[in-house]
Amino acid sequence: MGKTLLALVLLGGLGASFSTAAVHFFRAWQAGRRLKRCGAQSTAVCTHLQIHDNSVSLHFTYEVDGVEYHGTSSPISRTAVVPGTEISVLYDPLFPSNSDAAECMGQDSRAILFIALLLGPVGLALDLVAAAILISLTLG
Hints:
By secondary structure, this protein is of the alpha+beta class. The chain has one domain (about 20-140): CATH 2.40.50.100. The protein has two helices and five strands; from the N terminus they run αβββββα. The chain has a five-stranded antiparallel sheet. A hairpin with a 4-residue loop joins strand 1 (about 40-50) and strand 2. Helix 1 packs antiparallel against helix 2 (about 110-140). The radius of gyration is 21 Å and the shape is elongated. The chain starts with a helix and ends with a helix. This is DUF3592 domain-containing protein. It comes from Streptomyces albiflavescens.
């Protein structure tokens, strides 16, 4: 019984993790769509680059109504930008701290949505299987 309970907890935890990741990816996709639709454009200065395994993120500063903001772009496969370069950014006029580099907009948005739509049902299925096994063990 102890091993079965541990397996159910792990299965349920894995399902919850998948579902949480799906929500994160879906929100990122929604934020990107909102910036594309109604984002305001500004000029920013690239402060540094963050190199990942297969991509790079731009870190930048920009100003809105006299307030300085710091932003990080969505990961992109490659860029010609170097620190100190002026770049174009889109920011949310209602929440100016929500921004992205203009060159990153539109890249991989379908992939982000696909990941969200894949992880959500998988997480739900894992949780339902764990719940069904737990109910069957409890009842009989």
